[in-house]
């Protein structure tokens, strides 16, 4: 637990300081193996096939740029090519939007690279060039089509790539003035480039079209592709500002490994264009380790590569300046690093003498040895890199003492060894003071001020009090006057464990150490004194199993014995038999039942009707619902009314005749 | 002596009642018999409930009310059918019987609904 919290504290300090330093300088690393494995993952699609042609194409281009392997080598016959070329040329002539031009010219360029048998040259290249150029805007951006007034940076990249294709496909030389105006456009486009604080440049995209918003990554990637393609096709030198090209490379590298295959394609494709371009190849300076230990005598190593991680031309690296964090002043070093050809790193064998533990920004300068290379490669002036110098901090003169309050005389004093285990046992009352003091020194002998120095007193009941230990001059010292603290301590007498925390991101031996305990004798709490806060419950118990929920079911009602119920069922029938017997005794008969056919039929139907209604009731009890029953009852009731009326009126007329007779 | 006189008086009373009842028309006797049947059935159910308890109470009530209800309806029928009753002189007994049947059907529809 204690060790974990130290690590946590240190980690947060480290993060905070990295965030601070990143404002002014940042590290950009060249493409690494992580990118290569990310690219390999592109080729293991989940369902065994790619979603669309576009995805496949982009995946292959990413893969090729990384030179993992050339995996596809399709053989197509020239006849098929000839047919495709005719169609593409037709669509070039009929095209009226930028994307039409882009796809058809791009297709022709690809075919040109595939085969030399088919004639892909454009006859009226000048006219096509002009019609694409007509879509350009004064700020160097392009429109997608002539009836769309919005201009876009992404479109500018596409247009440049298309125009490069036109130039390479042209059967005759393109008008030179056209190329010159285009170069001018590119310069204007670069005027609109935006800059991050860390020196990365990117092209922002403000235009939102039906295809959705193109983010800065795709816009910048598109422009880089367009420019490099144009420079390659025309053979012109564009004289682009070196820091901006390098800044673009830094922008792509700063993304590290993007989440989506599309972004990875944009990133790697643009970097590959920069690496292979005729424009200018950016060189990236990176440090394999930015945390160096003075105690271990680590050497400062610097690596210079191209963006994709290839070796750089012969060059020398100089450490120019060292800024210590927090202060503006810099010490000028101007020391050249020694090149280790085996590992291809530049090594600074010994750190400058005045570099103590702490956070620094090292400023490097790359100088190319061959003057030819100076034109071709871009180093971007000085590169600032944040570096952490760590070391083992010496802890000296640690002692803990109990003082008498009035005169300050020492009652009890004990030496502490803060590099090892301690278990002091002290006792004090509320009229005394506790003093803890120690010194911290860096390996160079300077006073070290760590980020965190805390003293913690923990009562048996779990109540904790944390004090910040301040430093006065060379010494760290804290004096706890218990008289002023009784209220804060909630008048809790008893054993308090003492714990000291000293931590910093550059301190290799940061520690959290129990020192022992102090037995405090505090006065009894007055009535109104604050109660100690309830201790937080153990966070682990919060995720533990909950108490089991028991369900209470209603106990089933007591039922009578089966035999008793059956006996009473039989008993209930007895009165019915008694009723029948009584009828026999009374000599009841059916002599009054109508004899003639029609009234007899009605009488029988009447009785059947009553029986059926009773049967319906029985069905209602067993399975039917109320609505079905009422519907059926309605029909039966009407029938019963009819036959009942006929039967009873017949009987009434018969009895009336008898009376009158 | 006194005791035998009491029993004799009671005997004489029963005898006179019996002879008076003998002159009652047969159709009224049949209705009386039906009422007796319904009431005795109701009493048997009450006894059953007294022995085993009132659960399920709605079933008990249904059975009880079915018997008592039909007995009451039969009493009404008897009142209407009786020739001695001058109040219902104009009402033919067939009409009274039709009412009895109709009321019984309605009663038992409710009973069946309540039976559960």
From TrEMBL, chain A:
Compartments reported by the entry: Endoplasmic reticulum membrane
Residue stretches making up the Ribophorin II third domain: 397-520
InterPro entries: Ribophorin_II_2nd, Ribophorin_II_3rd, Ribophorin_II_C, Ribophorin_II_N, Swp1
Signal peptide interval: 1-24
Pathway the protein takes part in: Protein modification; protein glycosylation
Alphabetical keyword list: Endoplasmic reticulum, Membrane, Signal, Transmembrane, Transmembrane helix
Membrane topology qualifier: Multi-pass membrane protein
Any one biological process term the GO annotation gives: protein N-linked glycosylation
Any one GO cellular component localisation term in the record: oligosaccharyltransferase complex
Ribophorin II N-terminal domain sequence ranges: 63-275
Record domain Ribophorin II C-terminal: where: 553-653
Domain of life: Eukaryota
Purpose of the protein: Subunit of the oligosaccharyl transferase (OST) complex that catalyzes the initial transfer of a defined glycan (Glc(3)Man(9)GlcNAc(2) in eukaryotes) from the lipid carrier dolichol-pyrophosphate to an asparagine residue within an Asn-X-Ser/Thr consensus motif in nascent polypeptide chains, the first step in protein N-glycosylation. N-glycosylation occurs cotranslationally and the complex associates with the Sec61 complex at the channel-forming translocon complex that mediates protein translocation across the endoplasmic reticulum (ER). All subunits are required for a maximal enzyme activity.
Name of the molecule in the record: Dolichyl-diphosphooligosaccharide--protein glycosyltransferase subunit 2
Lineage per the UniProt record: Eukaryota, Viridiplantae, Streptophyta, Embryophyta, Tracheophyta
UniProtKB/TrEMBL annotation, chain B:
Protein's job: Subunit of the oligosaccharyl transferase (OST) complex that catalyzes the initial transfer of a defined glycan (Glc(3)Man(9)GlcNAc(2) in eukaryotes) from the lipid carrier dolichol-pyrophosphate to an asparagine residue within an Asn-X-Ser/Thr consensus motif in nascent polypeptide chains, the first step in protein N-glycosylation. N-glycosylation occurs cotranslationally and the complex associates with the Sec61 complex at the channel-forming translocon complex that mediates protein translocation across the endoplasmic reticulum (ER). All subunits are required for a maximal enzyme activity.
Residue ranges of the TM segments: 33-51, 57-77, 97-115
Keywords from the UniProt entry: Apoptosis, Endoplasmic reticulum, Membrane, Transmembrane, Transmembrane helix
Taxonomic path: Eukaryota, Viridiplantae, Streptophyta, Embryophyta, Tracheophyta
GO cellular component terms listed in the entry, alphabetical order: endoplasmic reticulum membrane
Signal peptide: none
Domain of life: Eukaryota
Biological pathway: Protein modification; protein glycosylation
Membrane topology: Multi-pass membrane protein
Family of this protein: Belongs to the DAD/OST2 family.
Subunit structure: Component of the oligosaccharyltransferase (OST) complex.
Main location as per UniProt: endoplasmic reticulum
Protein name: Dolichyl-diphosphooligosaccharide--protein glycosyltransferase subunit DAD1
Any Pfam family hit: DAD
InterPro entries documented for this protein: DAD/Ost2
Localization (cell): Endoplasmic reticulum membrane
């Amino acid at each position: 637990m204690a060790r974990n919290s130290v690590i946590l504290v240190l980690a947060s300090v480290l993060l905070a300081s990295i965030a601070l330093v990143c404002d002014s300088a940042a590290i950009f690393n060249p493409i690494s193996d992580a990118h290569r494995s990310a690219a390999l993952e592109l080729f293991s699609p989940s369902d065994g096939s790619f979603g669309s042609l576009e995805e496949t194409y982009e995946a292959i281009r990413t893969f090729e740029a990384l030179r993992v392997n050339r995996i596809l080598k399709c053989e197509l016959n020239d006849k098929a090519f000839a047919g495709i070329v005719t169609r593409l040329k037709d669509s070039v002539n009929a095209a009226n939007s930028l994307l039409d031009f882009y796809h058809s010219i791009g297709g022709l360029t690809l075919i040109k690279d595939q085969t030399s048998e088919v004639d892909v040259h454009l006859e009226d290249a000048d006219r096509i060039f002009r019609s694409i150029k007509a879509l350009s805007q004064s700020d160097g951006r392009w429109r997608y089509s002539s009836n769309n007034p919005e201009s876009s940076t992404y479109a500018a990249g596409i247009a440049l790539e298309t125009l490069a294709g036109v130039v390479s496909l042209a059967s005759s030389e393109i008008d030179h003035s056209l190329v010159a105006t285009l170069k001018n456009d590119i310069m204007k486009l670069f005027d609109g480039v935006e800059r991050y604080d860390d020196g990365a440049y990117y092209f922002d995209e403000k235009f939102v079209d039906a295809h959705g918003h193109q983010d800065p990554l795709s816009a910048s990637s598109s422009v880089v592709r367009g420019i490099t393609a144009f420079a390659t096709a025309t053979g012109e030198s564009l004289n682009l500002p070196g820091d901006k090209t390098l800044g673009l490379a830094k922008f792509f590298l700063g993304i590290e490994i993007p989440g989506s295959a599309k972004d990875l394609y944009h990133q790697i494709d643009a970097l590959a264009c920069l690496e292979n371009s005729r424009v200018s190849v950016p060189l990236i300076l990176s440090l394999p380790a930015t945390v160096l230990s003075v105690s271990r005598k680590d050497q400062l190593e610097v690596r210079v590569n191209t963006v994709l991680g290839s070796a750089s031309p012969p060059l020398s690296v100089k450490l120019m300046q060292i800024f210590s964090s927090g202060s503006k002043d810099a010490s000028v070093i101007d020391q050249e690093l020694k090149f280790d050809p085996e590992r291809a790193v530049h090594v600074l064998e010994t750190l400058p003498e005045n570099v103590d533990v702490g956070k620094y920004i090292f400023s490097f300068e790359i100088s190319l040895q061959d003057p030819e290379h100076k034109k071709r490669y871009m180093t971007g002036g000085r590169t600032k890199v944040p570096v952490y110098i760590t070391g083992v901090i010496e802890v000296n003169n640690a002692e803990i003492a109990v003082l008498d309050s009035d005169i300050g005389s020492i009652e009890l004093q004990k030496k502490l060894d803060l590099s090892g285990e301690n278990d002091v046992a002290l006792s004090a009352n509320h009229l005394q003071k506790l003093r803890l003091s120690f010194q911290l020194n860096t390996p160079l002998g300077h006073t070290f001020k760590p980020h965190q120095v805390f003293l913690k007193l923990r009562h048996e009941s779990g109540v904790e009090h944390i004090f910040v230990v301040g430093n006065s001059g060379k010494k760290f010292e804290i004096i706890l006057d218990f008289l002023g603290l009784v209220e804060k301590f909630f008048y809790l007498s008893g054993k308090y464990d003492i714990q000291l925390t000293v931590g910093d991101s550059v301190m290799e031996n940061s520690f959290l150490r129990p020192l022992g305990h102090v037995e405090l004798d505090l006065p009894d709490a007055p009535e109104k004194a604050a109660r100690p806060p309830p201790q937080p419950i153990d966070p682990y118990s919060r995720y533990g199993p909950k108490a089991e929920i028991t369900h209470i079911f209603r106990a089933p009602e007591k039922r009578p014995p089966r035999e008793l119920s059956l006996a009473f069922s039989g008993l209930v029938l007895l009165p019915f038999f008694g009723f029948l017997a009584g009828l026999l005794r009374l000599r009841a008969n059916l002599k009054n039942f109508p004899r003639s056919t029609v009234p007899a039929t009605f009488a029988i139907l009447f009785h059947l009707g009553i029986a059926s209604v009773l049967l319906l009731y029985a069905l209602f009890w067993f399975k039917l619902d109320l609505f079905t029953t009422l519907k059926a009852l309605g029909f039966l009731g009407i029938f019963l009314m009819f036959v009942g009326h006929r039967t009873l009126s017949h009987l009434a007329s018969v009895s009336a005749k008898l009376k009158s007779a | 002596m006194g005791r035998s006189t009491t029993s004799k008086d009671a005997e004489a009373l029963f005898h006179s009642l019996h002879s008076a009842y003998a002159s009652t028309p047969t159709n009224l006797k049949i209705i009386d018999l039906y009422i007796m049947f319904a009431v005795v059935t109701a009493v048997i159910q009450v006894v059953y409930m007294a022995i085993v308890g009132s659960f399920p109470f709605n079933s008990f009530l249904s059975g009880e009310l079915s018997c008592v209800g039909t007995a009451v309806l039969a009493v009404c029928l008897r009142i209407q059918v009786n020739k001695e009753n001058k109040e219902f002189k104009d009402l033919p007994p067939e009409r009274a019987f039709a009412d009895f049947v109709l009321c019984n059907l309605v009663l038992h529809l409710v009973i069946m609904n309540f039976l559960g």
